[in-house]
Amino acid sequence: MINNEDLAYLKEQLGFWDKLSQKEKQLLVSNVYSINYKKGENLHGRDKDCVGHILVKSGELRVYILSEEGRDITLYRLTPGETCVLSASCVMNYISFDVLIDAEQDTEVLLLNIGAFGMLKEGNIHVENYAYKVAADRFSDIMWAMEQILFASFDKRLAVFLYDESARNKSNKINLTHEQIAKYVGSAREVVSRTLKNFESQGILKLSRGNLNIINKEKLRELI
Amino acid sequence: MINNEDLAYLKEQLGFWDKLSQKEKQLLVSNVYSINYKKGENLHGRDKDCVGHILVKSGELRVYILSEEGRDITLYRLTPGETCVLSASCVMNYISFDVLIDAEQDTEVLLLNIGAFGMLKEGNIHVENYAYKVAADRFSDIMWAMEQILFASFDKRLAVFLYDESARNKSNKINLTHEQIAKYVGSAREVVSRTLKNFESQGILKLSRGNLNIINKEKLRELI
Question: String of b and e for B1-11 (b: at least 16 CB within 10 Å)?
Answer without folding.
Answer: eeeeebeebbe
